[in-house]
């Protein structure tokens, strides 16, 4: 229900979000396959690194940090290739705070016949995502982000088309642990042993999904969006500038450029040590210049935004120029 899919092959991988990323790539790719990897931040680049290890014929479509992938650029790349086996993209780029319009990208991918793989580690359960309706073949997420369960489990779903490709592989996936068909034994109607599951985390994830169901998926999306809008307004009042254009902002992760004159790392440390509020620093070119503020699952509350605003108003007094 969270993925909005009827896919039979919907399971959780025992491991962090990166394990699900590796599971998807290792099972879907064989050496020599043609893959188009969209990269517009840190996690798209992590996928690129995995494809390089998988020895596929790799083509990149990139966008500057802070911007989404342009569907026209993807189309041009797809049109230039004879056949494409797989296209991948990150839905919510945690490094930049950009949300990708996956519905439009899926329409661009469809005529090529390629499978579409999407990373929703930072967005599933917090931002609208419709696996079947949009025609996405493989989607994974992590237990610890918008579901607010402990880390260590990664829900993933595979379309029939994707399973078909995996069943017709000429060689088994490199990883025995992440082999989909072996993992499936654990989830099939008559479960058998494959590896030791993380049972306590499974109970926690089950409860997190119950909470999501009680609140309602669409209500959760709406709560996240409203809370994010309040955050933009409050931060802008304090002199922060939003990195991402309003239409491309990822509600679960906001990248805000600090007002001039603020020493970002010591300020962040004060927030954590004195007020128990944790915000992340900027990555790559944004290091030292921007903060990344998460609004995911349980922590996505207007009270938290008001508290951050109150504390920052105090701390920034007399500091900004
Ligand atoms: C978009 C995205 N993909 C993948 C990952 C990797 O997840 P994990 O750290 O659980 O391995 C993260 C983690 O922050 C992420 O934000």
CATH topology of the largest domain: Aspartate Aminotransferase, domain 2
Measured on Cα atoms, how large is the radius of gyration?
20 Å
- The CATH fourth-level homologous superfamily of the largest domain: Type I PLP-dependent aspartate aminotransferase-like (Major domain)
Tally of alpha and pi helices: 11
CATH class of the largest domain: Alpha Beta
User: Helical percent range?
Assistant: 25-40%
State the order of secondary-structure elements, H for helix, E for strand: EHEHEHEEEHEHEEHHHHEEHEEH
Global morphology: globular
Looking across the biggest beta sheet, what order are the strands in?
1-9-8-7-4-2-3
Uncertain segments are: none
Amino-to-carboxy terminus distance: 49 Å
Summed up, the domain count is: 2
Overall average pLDDT: 95
Largest sheet properties: 7 strands, mixed
Structural class: alpha/beta
Number-wise, the strands total: 13
CATH architecture of the largest domain: 3-Layer(aba) Sandwich
